[in-house]
Amino acid sequence: MTSASSRPVTLITGASGGIGSALARTLAPDHDLILTGRGGAGLDALCAELGATPLTLDLTRPDTFAAALAGLGRVTNVVHNAGVVELGAVAEQGHEVWTHTLAVNTVAPAELTRLLLPKVRAERGMVLFVNSGAGLRANPGWGSYAASKFALRALADALRDEEAPHGVRVSTVYPGRTATPMQQKVREQEGATYDPAAFIDPATVAATIAFVLNAPRDAQLSDVSVRPGPGPR
């Protein structure tokens, strides 16, 4: 169990941009960070900026996770933030899209959670899933992505009850459309203009996730939706 003087160690997937990098900067003053991604200059620069530990993971290859995690020290919290999206009708998307989407968005979080649970249990920490509004409602053209996010919600719900006896909290955050590179790609696929000002600021989602992570232990914020605020910004 973590001593009162120890800083929590938080692992964030998909940390090199968007919500992930905003969350890393939000948590850096109070958390020791392990930032995962596919590697590269962006992740290295962020880790250098924040004094974080980089961890290269290929989320399409869960069979490589155990070796990648070998020698890892304490882990208090795991934030599953990485994700992929490819829009298309069910009648048009082949199994390759479905397999890739489910592998990254659902299978990888399940396997990473399984491998890290002993460490998280020892810390009485938290597993937090960054889901999506598509994890609550499936719209036309979003079948494969929504299916992966519905499955992620099921994973979180089952895990929450399974891990309660071990003192592990499990939360899901459902952001609405957020001004990220992923959203820019979605808008291109929709044939629409990308205007960051029209969407939630990644720092706002990061602040919400940090609030959930840092909530007192007598509370568990199981499901939190983040939607655009009313009126002009």
TrEMBL record:
Gene3D superfamilies: NAD(P)-binding Rossmann-like Domain. SUPFAM superfamilies: NAD(P)-binding Rossmann-fold domains. GO terms for cellular component: membrane. This is SDR family oxidoreductase. Belongs to the short-chain dehydrogenases/reductases (SDR) family. One of its GO terms (molecular function) is oxidoreductase activity. Residues 8-177 form the Ketoreductase domain. Keywords: Oxidoreductase. The lineage of its organism: Bacteria, Thermotogati, Deinococcota, Deinococci, Deinococcales.
